[in-house]
Write a structure and sequence with these properties.
Length: 240
């Protein structure tokens, strides 16, 4: 489905991503775990077309998307839900959802309202609040709205940047339960997340990103039990 091959991305003269290769199969949840400054958001931004790679290739299926502008990457089906949600505060819940489908508004207009109903059913806290301004929602509700807006684009791959950031533990649990529900429906998700424990519990596979380099990769349940990962990201102490 999604394949990244030997990707290098720079911010100015700083080499942020170094020879990154990964893949996401259809219907998987794959997580990228790492500390602040590891390059996680840059990786998603490069895949989404926000940043241009210095070298390397990105494929969606057989199509190379590495050099495409962000708006064309969206049309091809790679959708980024950004860090800190970035909803349109002064617009209603309904208008935020409609904006998620902007690129298919004229070609698929008849199905958009039905898709909105599906999103509201997936995120019950948003139901009945379609006219409420997005900026008045709680942090968890805004995160649900941001994910819902991404889903309105009918993504082939949904990129999630720190979906648990700044949320209370109970809300985080609810968000990750929704992600599991989306996987059951066939949604393909690549997620970067600092909450390693929560991410590894829901993901199928995982990559550990350290200073722009993938240091570990494997099945999420195996990395969850890996002593090195536990020590570095899960707060566990190693015993001699």
């Amino acid at each position: 489905m999604l394949k990244v091959v030997q990707l290098d991305t720079y911010h100015g003269r700083i080499r942020v991503l170094k020879n990154i290769s990964l893949h996401v199969e259809k219907g998987e949840i794959v997580t990228i775990v790492g500390a602040n400054g590891a390059g996680k958001s840059t990786l998603l931004g490069t895949i989404a077309g926000v940043y241009k790679p210095k070298s390397g290739r990105i494929f969606l299926g057989t199509k190379q998307t590495s050099c495409l502008p962000a708006e064309k990457v969206v049309k091809d089906g790679i959708i980024l839900v950004p860090e800190r949600r970035e909803v349109f505060d002064s617009l209603s819940v309904l208008d935020n959802l409609r904006l998620g489908a902007f690129h298919r508004y004229y070609t698929d207009k008849k199905t958009i309202e039905g898709d909105i109903e599906k999103i509201l059913a997936l995120f019950p806290p948003l139901a009945g609040r379609e006219k409420q301004l997005a900026g008045t929602l709680s942090g968890g509700e805004q995160q649900m709205l941001a994910i819902g807006r991404g889903l309105m684009a009918n993504p082939k791959v949904l990129l999630l940047d720190e979906p648990s950031l700044g949320l209370a533990p109970l809300v985080v649990k609810e968000i990750f339960e929704i992600l599991l529900s989306l996987r059951k429906q066939g949604t393909t998700i690549l997620m970067v997340e600092q909450n390693a424990k929560a991410a590894l519990k829901v993901a199928d596979r995982a990559y550990i990103l350290e200073r722009g380099v993938i240091s570990h990769a494997g099945m999420a349940r195996e990395l969850l039990q890996d002593s090195r990962v536990q020590s570095a990201y899960l707060g566990a102490r190693l015993h001699a």
